């Protein structure tokens, strides 16, 4: 942890002028946070949010113009599943009362029931196809799920003090995929494989990139291709960053490879900024199985822990609630940034909100004035 200590000392000594050197200029889109609609924001999305936000601050400081893009996961076959689940087991009142909780319940139930009833998967595929074809009922449900989820996400971003320049997510790419598929066809890059259309990446030693399923449905990769091209055309970037978990390493390597195959040399300016996995009690988290750490809850518990410690140690402090809020949230953010980016770590809230050692509360305590991470 020597590095963190040195950096902190340097920042404390140089204060506002730390890193004033002008290193570059130009637009740098940062794909960050990017949670999935109808699912809770995870600790992984927190990592992406705070790392992305810090990168944006550093880039600004050294002369670049960061563009913080929240590439919402608001499209894909999971919406077919969600529509089927909602129509079978959902309640409008429940979704209105606590959207993410109930939408997640439907999603988890879908996966559990589909194990014994595979026909549910066919229904889900059909509903996603309807959504892609602009069907009115499917679109209405999708818009509703999206709006309710986004409200919840924005509440969390307010707590974290993070904002975005764009919320253009996967769905925004809907009308931008056809030209990409046409370009791939024109350049003879699309191949058929078991009815699906792929780009062969053997030459790169990678698995093929899946562009279109046999039923014509597009994929995560198809949308990311359109998004990369859109960002290049729209922002004329010097670098394009993607702050996304290590587990998507191959996806971003494929994305770059396909763009290079298309002759887009600028793909060399695309950088995946990976980070390690957060586990709970040594176990990997999985939304599908409902095994998630809810970020919302973590932040609340961190504030509660801070409050208890303040009450015990500084019972005379006047604005205890306000301080607990800053200390609790700051502790979670600081802990995330302090950990070596590519390392995985087990999340232990008690350790995160400790008042002694290399923790957010300690840094806030030793630095004069309000410290915002
Ligand atoms: N929504 C995705 C997830 O939660 C992350 C998206 C990352 N960005 C991207 N351009 N693929 O896993």
Secondary-structure map with pairings?
Blueprint: H1 2-14, E1 27-31, H2 43-61, E2 65-69, H3 77-89, H4 92-97, H5 99-114, H6 119-132, H7 136-160, H8 177-186, E3 190-193, E4 196-199, E5 209-212, H9 220-235, E6 240-243, H10 249-261, E7 270-273, E8 278-279, H11 295-313, H12 320-338, E9 345-346, H13 349-352, H14 360-366
The structure holds arginine.
Arginine (ARG) binds at residues 31, 34-36, 71, 73, 224, 227, 242, 244.
Task: Write a structural description.
By secondary structure, the protein is of the alpha/beta class. It folds into two domains: 24-188 and 215-293, HUPs (Rossmann fold); 295-366. The protein has helices spanning 2-14, 43-61, 77-89, 92-97, 99-114, 119-132, 136-160, 177-186, 220-235, 249-261, 295-313, 320-338, 349-352, 360-366; strands at residues 27-31, 65-69, 190-193, 196-199, 209-212, 240-243, 270-273, 278-279, 345-346. It is globular and about 70 Å long. The two termini are 18 Å apart. It binds arginine.
């Amino acid at each position: 942890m020597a590095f963190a200590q040195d950096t902190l000392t340097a920042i404390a000594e140089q204060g506002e002028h730390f890193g004033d050197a002008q290193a570059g200029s130009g637009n740098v889109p940062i794909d960050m946070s990017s949670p999935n609609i109808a699912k809770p924001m995870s600790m992984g999305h927190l990592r992406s949010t705070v790392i992305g936000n810090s990168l944006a601050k550093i880039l600004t400081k050294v002369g670049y113009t960061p563009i913080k893009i929240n590439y919402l996961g608001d499209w894909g076959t999971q919406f077919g599943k969600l529509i089927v689940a909602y129509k079978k087991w959902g309640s409008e009142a429940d979704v209105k009362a606590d959207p993410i909780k109930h939408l997640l319940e439907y999603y988890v139930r879908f996966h559990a029931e589909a194990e014994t009833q595979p026909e549910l998967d066919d229904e889900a595929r059909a509903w996603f196809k309807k959504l892609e074809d602009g069907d009115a009922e499917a679109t209405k449900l999708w818009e509703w799920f999206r709006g309710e989820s986004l409200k919840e996400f924005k509440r969390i971003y307010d707590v974290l003090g993070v904002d975005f320049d764009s919320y253009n997510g996967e769905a925004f790419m809907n009308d931008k995929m056809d030209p990409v598929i046409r370009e791939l066809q024109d350049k003879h890059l699309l191949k058929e494989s078991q009815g699906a259309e792929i780009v062969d990446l053997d030459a790169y030693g990678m698995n093929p990139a899946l562009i279109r399923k046999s039923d014509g449905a597009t994929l995560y990769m198809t949308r990311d291709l359109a998004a990369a091209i859109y960002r290049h055309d729209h922002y004329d970037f010097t670098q394009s960053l993607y702050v996304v978990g290590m587990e998507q390493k191959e996806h971003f390597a494929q994305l770059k490879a396909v763009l290079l195959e298309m002759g887009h040399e600028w793909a060399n300016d695309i950088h995946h900024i990976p980070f390690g996995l957060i586990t709970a009690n040594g176990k990997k988290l999985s939304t599908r199985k409902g095994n998630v750490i809810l970020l919302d809850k973590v932040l609340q518990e961190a504030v509660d822990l801070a409050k208890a410690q303040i009450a015990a140690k500084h019972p005379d402090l006047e604005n205890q609630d306000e301080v607990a809020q800053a200390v609790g949230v700051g502790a979670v953010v600081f802990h995330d940034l302090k950990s070596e980016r590519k390392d995985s770590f087990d999340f232990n809230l008690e350790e995160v909100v400790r008042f002694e050692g290399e923790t957010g509360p300690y840094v806030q305590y030793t630095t004069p004035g309000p410290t915002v991470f």
